[in-house]
Structure formats: C-alpha cells, structure tokens
Amino acid sequence: MKDKNLEQLEMDRRTFLKTTAAAGAVGLMGSSFAQQQPTADQVVRGKNPKLVVLSPRPVVLESTLELLGSERITSKANLFVRNNIDLPGLNTTEPNVQPGWEVEFSGLIDKPFKVTVEELSRLPQTEVTTVLQCSGNGRSFFNPRPSGNPWTYGGVGQVTWRGVLLKTLLEAKGVNLDPKARFITMNASTQGGAAPYEKSFPISVMEYSSAMLALGMNGEPLPAVHGGPVRLVAAGTFGTANVKWIAKVEFTASESSGNEQVPRYRVPVLPGVNIPILPTQPGSRYNYTLENSRSNWMANINSFILSPLPGASVRGRRVDIRGVAWNDGLAPIETIEVSLNGGTTWRKALIERDNGKYGWYHWVSPQLLAPGEYEAMVRATDAVGRTQPLNGNVWWNERGYEWNGIMRVKFTVT
Fold it and tell me: Fewest beta carbons within 10 Å, which of 151, 179, 310, 408?
C-alpha cells in the first residue's frame, strides 16, 4: 500500500466503501438502499456532501485535503465526525438546545456537585484553538491495514472552542481534590438509550492542556453532532479523550477499565513505561491491558501537504508547496522540512505560527521547478526532538492508531 500514490488510494477506498456499504445494506435495509450510499449531508444535516461517509451509524465522516486547505479554521460543515454512540435527533450541525442539561462531578473531591449549562455560561469563558484529530487518522496507510474505519488524512481539523476551564469551575465551586486523584473519568449521556461511553485521562492534562467544558465552537453554540450542548475538550489530546454530550465527570485514583479505555484506543508500550511505543510485528495480535499499553491521550507530531494536492498539475516555474504541522503543544515545532528527492536531501520550509501552541503551524516551501513529475515529502520536528518516521509502518499496531509517517504527494509541473 505504501507504494500507491494517495490519489489511487483514495479512489480505491471510495470504491471499497460504496461496494461494502451497499452489500451490507441489502441484507439489513433492503435493496433500495443498496443502490446508493448516503452522502454526508444526508447522514448529518448541515455537513458538506463532499465529506466521505465511512459509517452512517454510528456517524463517521471524513473530510478531505481540499476542504482542509480551503479555510484556516475548519467550519462545522467541513469538520470530520467520529461518533462512537448516536444520541437520537442529534445528527445535525445545529445547536442542541436542552435547558437544564446537567453535568455531575463526583469521585475524589470534597464537595460533589452538579452544574447546568446555564450556570456554565455565566462563568468566565476561555477560548482556545486546537487541532482535533481522531487517533485512527491515517489508519489506511498501515500495511497490512488494521481493523477499524479506513481513515486516510481527513479525520482532523482545526477549531476554536469556547468554554469554562475545569480549574475555573472547581475554584468557583470551592472544590478541592483528594491527593489520591490521578485521573479524570468522563461519561457521555445515555439519553435515548445510547450506549455508555466512559473515558479517562491523567489529571495532569487538566493543568497543561486547557481542559474545559466547551459550550461553543468557532464562535457559535456547540453543534449537536459535535457534542452540544457541552463536551469536554482537552487541547493537545486525540479526539477520543474529548468526550461529547458530557454528563458525568469523576476524579479517580485509576483510569477506567471500560471497553472504550481498554482494549480500545490503546497502543503497545514496554511494561511500566509510557514512552517509547513498543513496535509490534505487522499483522500480529496483541492482548491489550492497562499494564502493557497506553491510551491515546496526547497527539503525536505530524504534518500535511495541502497544496499541491495529490495528482495536481501546476503551472509556472515557481511552485509554493504549502501545508500544516502540529503536535500536542507541549513543545514548539521548530523545523519543517520538504524533500523532492525521496528524502536524500531536505530543505527547511518557512513557518507561520498564527494559531497558538495547540493549533496548526502553517508553512510554505517556495520551489523553482522545471516541468516534470515530482513527489514532495514533508516532516516536522519539535524543540524536544520529536519528529516523524520516514516509514510510519514501524509503529504498526493492529488497531491502527497514531499514524504519523511522512506524507508523500505526487504532482506535475507543466
């Protein structure tokens, strides 16, 4: 798979999705549905029909490189969706207006309490721009392909959240944490019979990742399909830790042992060590436990080429190769490099940093190119030396999480 260019991969994936979705629908929903896969706007009201439908229920929609490159802040119409549960009536980009919605706080705190969205809206609000990304983004580039939704590059976007920091809320309520509290354990609402969804992340994330109860996105009330009326957001983390439709927050001594925490959303590690990830033999199985693996918490370093697009033909001798890079925000990205000769030599790109430490670093690499065929590669490196592997498959894992291999884009100069 790694030798196929991205354009062909995308064509193959779309064909596969349409074929398998139609085949499954014949048995489940009748032959009329089998004739046509629903478009994204039919699955979620208000979404751009150009998004790729990976699953209509629970909703999984993938954006495209073209859409991601068309706007600095990813609009609600173009933002990907990865839902593990479906709450009835919430598959829309309109707000989820439910007066009196409560979030319960309990566990290792001295004063358990409940707070409504109305109370949250009256507390001091904070805005933060972050990269939101599914930890399975890029899964299709692992070889052999792991289980799960066949994401390519579109399970990511940049959005601006508005809400109440957890620190601010606890201070406003006069709540103190028990010294034994090490994790924040979150539960989504089960209204309408939705399946339980429970996740945990280290309590330290609350301190350095602007963890908040978000009420708004991109200057509007939080869209229903993206977790409205309130979701937990922790900047710099993968989307799985940003629980939608939040109903309960517990401060706990250990992380959840529920299915969404283990075995799902985990990668192998050496026992007792969180870093580095332990490589596994491609195609092998792994018995995930809390001891021999870690959860997908902090996002790893990554970079994309957004122009030229794969398969594009560009005119002129000067070609500006453009894109974005990001990481978990714990260290600044210092270097972004572009290669046009298979990684033999690299040339530094010019970095624009205009979205904050949790957002995209926009970059440009001006090139003087003669007519011909080219393949551009990009890699990012941050201040503590974290960078992208030339071959992302070195970190193959059977569930296909945390792909950050170097991106390659083929294009033509005419």
Answer: 179
